């Protein structure tokens, strides 16, 4: 858990070889949007994009979006960037996880 959100720090954690590595990532759609904005500004070279996608596909096992509706363009672009289809989930503190999209590999 980070004290405050920083797209740069999240991408650095995703790509870090330090242990423990991130293997599950959960965020709201706005966080994914901010990460994609950072990606568009800083990962402009095809070899950097390919490296990032390969690391995410190999090292991260699950990425989840929750707490708000996930816009289809965010879902599709995130899949193109990382190779991961976001698992969309809904729930409440009182009842726990109420609805979930299917987890497919």
From TrEMBL:
AMP-dependent synthetase/ligase domain location: 18-99
Annotated organism of origin: Homo sapiens (Human)
Gene that encodes the chain: ACSF3
Annotated SUPFAM superfamilies: Acetyl-CoA synthetase-like
Pfam families to which the protein is assigned, alphabetical: AMP-binding
Stated family: Belongs to the ATP-dependent AMP-binding enzyme family.
Protein name (database record): Acyl-CoA synthetase family member 3
């Amino acid at each position: 858990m980070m004290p405050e959100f920083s797209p740069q720090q999240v991408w650095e954690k995703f790509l870090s070889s330090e242990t423990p590595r991130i293997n599950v990532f959960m965020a709201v759609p706005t966080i994914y949007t901010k990460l994609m904005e950072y990606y568009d500004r800083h990962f402009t070279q095809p070899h950097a994009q390919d490296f990032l996608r390969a690391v995410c596909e190999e090292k991260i096992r699950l990425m989840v979006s929750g707490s708000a509706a996930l816009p289809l363009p965010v879902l599709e672009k995130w899949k193109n960037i990382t190779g991961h289809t976001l698992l969309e989930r809904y729930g409440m503190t009182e009842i726990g996880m109420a609805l979930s999209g299917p987890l497919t590999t």
